[in-house]
Amino acid sequence: MKYHINLTKEKMLKHFPGISSEASIIGTLWEEESFKKDLASEYGADYFKERIKDYSGFFSLVYQKGEDLFAAVDIIRSHPLFYGVVENNFYISDEADWVRKQVNDMEMDPIARDEFQLTGYVTGRDTLFPNVKQLQAGESLLIKDGVLSLDRYYLFTHTEPKEYNEENLSKEFLRVSRESIQRLVNYAKGRQIVIPLSGGYDSRFIASLLKESGYENILCFTYGRQGNKEARDK
Q1: Once rounded to an integer, what is the mean pLDDT over residues 39-44?
Q2: Under a CB-based contact definition with an 8 Å cutoff, are residues 165 and 136 in contact?
Q3: In sequence order, which ranges of 28-105 are alpha helices (DSSP H)?
């Protein structure tokens, strides 16, 4: 299979050429140093199908070695990837319209179009055009020996705790929340963080933890009509 890779976010893009492999990352991968070591080992593309579970950050990843290719997006799909296959050509890009043009997809799928008009988006791997697909949040793609397979390496499913100890659960919630905020602080690196304040507790909690962390460059704002309930609650 012949690969055509088109990644356009130049300011966020990093290339990692190897001896017999090549990788590209859009965004931020927290375990970048560990990733570089994996690349230096010249592993096959299938190695990263398992390894991706250990990576975190705001990223999309494309890795090619010989005839095989691996691609993935992070668990919230910070940087979407789109792909399409025509005969023996595989196209992948962060621009859906580029893929559409390569696969010569000229007409929208009528069901996808209706879904988009009703909801504002198309669900699953589908897009508005039938031959243009997308990686879902926490999903990876592997082409090995000419066979394309997809894997949902992360899928959020709610489970109830085995024991309801309110004190322990509260402590664990605070620990996890503080770790998340610290990752945000490390990622922002002094840049301004903007928090839209609703009338609920989530945005207030985030603002409180950022203040606790000592981060100073923060802008908060409410929205809607002047004097609305959301603004008054804040």
Answers
A1: 90
A2: no
A3: 32-40, 47-51, 96-102
